[in-house]
Structures are given as structure tokens and as C-alpha cells.
């Protein structure tokens, strides 16, 4: 197998493992009832129309990911 294919295959496997890990984390948090329960998340229900915008959850997730990336990928 050429070196390009080898590195591409490893990248695809790493991305797949990362997606599986993210899915397991999201599943575990959903079982605990954590996401979507923060004050500031917007939920609008009008008849048969529902819109949900988790603004505070997105901000918290962004903060946590920023801190993790700064810790693990600092040069």
C-alpha cells in the first residue's frame, strides 16, 4: 500500500474512533439527563411547532473543549 493510502487509512480510523467515543459520551450524558437542562437554553412550543436552541449548553461545551485543546495541544 502506498504511504499516502496508509496515512489516510490511519486518519479515517482515528476519526471513526473519535466519533464512537463522542457518541458514547453523549449517550452517557443523555442517560444522566444533563444536556438540554441548563438555564438559558431556549425552548419555544407553539401548537405543533417546537424549536430548541441550547445556547448555554453550546457556550459551556465550547469553553470545556477550548480548555481541553489548550491543555493537550499546547506547543
What's the assembly state of these chains?
Answer: single chain
What is the beta-strand fraction? 5-15%
- Report the C-alpha radius of gyration, rounded: 18 Å
Q: Quick one: overall form?
A: elongated
**Strand-and-helix sequence, N→C?**
HEEH
Unreliable parts: none
> In what order do the strands lie side by side in the largest sheet?
1-2
DSSP strand count: 2
For the biggest sheet, the summary is: 2 strands, antiparallel
Helix-strand category: alpha+beta
Number of helices: 2
Look at the structure and give the mean pLDDT: 85
Distance between the termini: 32 Å
| Helix content percent band | 55-70%
Walkthrough of the structure:
By secondary structure, the chain is of the alpha+beta class. The protein is about 65% helix and about 15% strand. The protein is built from 2 helices and 2 strands, in the order αββα. The chain has helices spanning about 5-30, 55-70; strands at about 40-45, 50-55. Strands 1-2 form a two-stranded antiparallel ribbon. A hairpin with a 2-residue loop joins β1 (about 40-45) and β2 (about 50-55).
Amino acid at each position: 500500500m502506498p504511504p499516502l493510502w496508509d496515512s489516510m487509512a490511519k486518519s479515517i480510523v482515528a476519526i471513526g474512533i473519535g466519533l464512537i467515543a463522542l457518541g458514547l459520551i453523549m449517550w452517557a450524558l443523555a442517560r444522566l439527563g444533563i444536556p438540554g437542562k441548563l438555564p438559558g437554553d431556549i425552548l419555544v412550543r407553539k401548537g405543533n411547532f417546537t424549536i430548541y436552541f441550547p445556547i448555554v449548553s453550546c457556550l459551556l461545551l465550547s469553553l470545556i473543549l477550548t480548555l481541553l485543546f489548550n491543555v493537550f495541544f499546547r506547543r
